[in-house]
Amino acid sequence: MVQDCIDALLPHVADGRLLVLRSTVFPGTTDWLDGYLRRKNRNLKLAFCPERMVQGHGIKELKETPQIISGTTPAAEEEAAKLFSAIAPELITVQPREAEFAKLFSNAYRYIEFATANQFYLIAKSAGLDFRNIYDAMKRNYPRARGIPTPGFAAGPCLMKDTMQLAAFAQNQFSLGNAAMLVNEGLVLHVCDDLRRRYDLSRITVGLLGMAFKADIDDTRASLSYKFKKALAGLAQAVLTTDPFVTTDPDLLPLEEVITRSDVLILCAPHSAYRDLDFAGKPVVDVWGYLRKANAIG
For the whole model, what pTM was predicted? Predict the structure, then answer.
């Protein structure tokens, strides 16, 4: 895919230009691409400077976040540094493969953090306890627990994919990453099984609230909401979906209709629009611990 992208781009790029890779790549891709360009007799300054912004906060974070810089030649490194020094508050210069791993490690670490919180949630739930009470007790005025995230459906186009890339590079010896994928992807199936124990799903209409992969954005790439939709399709009488941001899914219904027609609701993405919503007394599965309503269930 990288080669196809570059081949399409090359007719529009003159020699001597700076080409910056920003998205995650498999370790060694930048050096491979440098050799590929040379074999095609192209003279481009090639840099890998990983994008580090949180989706939805890119403009704000671009001017606040240190920028990792790497180039396959001193000239490429210098040109990339000149470009990003105009916007970033600090530059960190490393080798291309180090920059590639920095990006992968950051995303995999975050994914493992989410898996830890989700595993804690499942353990507490199996003990018949409300994880939110434990979570609040752990974190209140205790700085060493400050970084523990809330449980939730960890998804999107980066975290799992990058964890998989590290696992592949490590020849499947990345046991923490493998475990994290099982926990985060398995959380959806756990919720489905829990619903099967509570209800006769063949007589139940389930409404999914939020089809984006995270709160208050419109990106559905790798969203676990669609895993819910597929898993429940063969179990529930009907599965209805809604999202206030997503515009690319023709199956989405208005929020009011989903609430009215559903017997049970699942908070898939904690959009701010759902925070204080009246769910008409319908039970809402809220793994996130996000809702303030009394009808939310874990």
Answer: 0.92
